[in-house]
Amino acid sequence: MTDLKNDRFLRALLKQPVDVTPVWMMRQAGRYLPEYRASRAKAGDFMSLCKNAEFACEVTMQPLDRFPQLDAAILFSDILTIPDAMGQGLYFETGEGPRFKKVVSTLADIEALPIPDPQKDLGYVMNAVSTIRRELNGRVPLIGFSGSPWTLATYMVEGGSSKDFRKTKAMLYDTPHAMHLLLDKLAQSVTSYLNGQILAGAQAVQIFDTWGGNLSSAAYQEFSLAYMRKIVSGLIREHEGRKVPVILFTKNGGLWLESIADAGADALGLDWTCDLGEARQRVGNKVALQGNMDPTVLYANPEAIRTEVKRILASYGKGSGHVFNLGHGITPEVKPEHAGAFISAVHEFSGQYHE
């Protein structure tokens, strides 16, 4: 494995000095890029992209080739690979998003779920990680990721995405022991999955808790954060002579920043509803912060995008410990040149905060 030519992303996550604020975008390889759409058409469907290491590598590299100022690559995959490997039968309906052929609805269903082996059952992901890492050749760090146990559980119980999480929350309150068993199995699965990615070459990992913010405060602590804390405690934190930073991202998690900061990760991802400066005051020196521009700002003209980048940089203020990102994933309708304006503005305006 080659030395990194650009490690400012890893340095910022560990609150070490950097020359400019590093930047990457959640979903930076995706449908807003015409080259991605061409690759997906060639592959045939989304899962064929994910399961073919060459295709996964190709689409991971596309945003880096288009936007050379990006400071990190993120593995191209899906958060639902673990439930699929547990036998749930993941498929995608056009316009409907992810669906499962089997749903989890009883304690017996949960007891029957296997814990996937990352090499045997998710080997295609490990192949993609090692292929991408080789292709990057030290250009920027590679981020691995997983969904959080709670977020994965919602899809498994609902059978797909949901607006109200009716079945999942009914299970949580009616049979909490069943939900805890499901979450514990998922936490074990996520831990081994992320460790597999680290051993295959991921240099940082992020846990996406997309639906944790839909829980009550008490339920979030018990059914989401507790399991992310368990995962963090089981992760490989040093590999290839470097620390492997861990990022926790709970969408709509601004109420619980102090608790999340105590979970043992190196950085917290923030959505756009949080004030970055206030978040920095609340967490102190415990963790770095990642975020948090509203993705819909990218629909605006480049000058408006640059103004918002400047505002967010000023909100965080001087010093390291900030990775610039969107507050959630970039959306398919964004013009690529607007994404480019965002990325270049971060480097252009952030140097003054690192003198």
UniProtKB/TrEMBL annotation:
<protein>
    <recommendedName>
        <fullName>Uroporphyrinogen decarboxylase</fullName>
        <ecNumber>4.1.1.37</ecNumber>
    </recommendedName>
</protein>
<comment type="similarity">
    <text>Belongs to the uroporphyrinogen decarboxylase family.</text>
</comment>
<feature type="binding site">
    <location>
        <position position="155"/>
    </location>
    <ligand>
        <name>substrate</name>
    </ligand>
</feature>
<comment type="subunit">
    <text>Homodimer.</text>
</comment>
<dbReference type="InterPro" id="IPR038071">
    <property type="entry name" value="UROD/MetE-like_sf"/>
</dbReference>
<feature type="domain" description="Uroporphyrinogen decarboxylase (URO-D)">
    <location>
        <begin position="22"/>
        <end position="31"/>
    </location>
</feature>
<feature type="binding site">
    <location>
        <position position="78"/>
    </location>
    <ligand>
        <name>substrate</name>
    </ligand>
</feature>
<feature type="binding site">
    <location>
        <position position="210"/>
    </location>
    <ligand>
        <name>substrate</name>
    </ligand>
</feature>
<keyword id="KW-0456">Lyase</keyword>
<keyword id="KW-0627">Porphyrin biosynthesis</keyword>
<keyword id="KW-0963">Cytoplasm</keyword>
<dbReference type="InterPro" id="IPR000257">
    <property type="entry name" value="Uroporphyrinogen_deCOase"/>
</dbReference>
<comment type="pathway">
    <text>Porphyrin-containing compound metabolism; protoporphyrin-IX biosynthesis; coproporphyrinogen-III from 5-aminolevulinate: step 4/4.</text>
</comment>
<feature type="domain" description="Uroporphyrinogen decarboxylase (URO-D)">
    <location>
        <begin position="143"/>
        <end position="159"/>
    </location>
</feature>
<dbReference type="Pfam" id="PF01208">
    <property type="entry name" value="URO-D"/>
</dbReference>
<comment type="function">
    <text>Catalyzes the decarboxylation of four acetate groups of uroporphyrinogen-III to yield coproporphyrinogen-III.</text>
</comment>
<feature type="binding site">
    <location>
        <begin position="27"/>
        <end position="31"/>
    </location>
    <ligand>
        <name>substrate</name>
    </ligand>
</feature>
<keyword id="KW-0210">Decarboxylase</keyword>
<feature type="site" description="Transition state stabilizer">
    <location>
        <position position="78"/>
    </location>
</feature>
<dbReference type="InterPro" id="IPR006361">
    <property type="entry name" value="Uroporphyrinogen_deCO2ase_HemE"/>
</dbReference>
<feature type="binding site">
    <location>
        <position position="328"/>
    </location>
    <ligand>
        <name>substrate</name>
    </ligand>
</feature>
